[in-house]
Specification:
- By secondary structure, this protein is an all-alpha fold.
- The chain has one domain (2-76).
- The protein has helices at residues 2-37, 41-76.
- The chain is elongated.
- The protein starts with a helix and ends with a helix.
Length: 77
């Protein structure tokens, strides 16, 4: 019984991690498209640093998901 609950908890956790990684990846794509086609170049000069940190944070989420998923896959073998 406890193994069943433990497995179910891991499945939910993996599913939520995957959702968070996909959401971050989609966010980075949408943000890039908005920057390229919507935002005025003069505003970009002011927003350069916050946008850079935003990309860094989203990339860290995607990277940590990939690392955790790889680690769990190797650990199971």
């Amino acid at each position: 019984m406890s193994e069943e609950i433990h497995e179910n908890g891991n499945g939910v956790r993996r599913k939520n991690r995957r959702r968070m990684a996909w959401t971050s990846l989609i966010y980075m794509i949408v943000k890039t498209l908005l920057i390229l086609f919507v935002v005025d170049p003069e505003r970009m000069k002011v927003l350069t640093e916050p946008i850079t940190w935003s990309y860094f944070c989203a990339a860290a989420i995607v990277g940590s998901y990939m690392g955790a998923a790889t680690f769990e896959h190797i650990k199971r073998k």
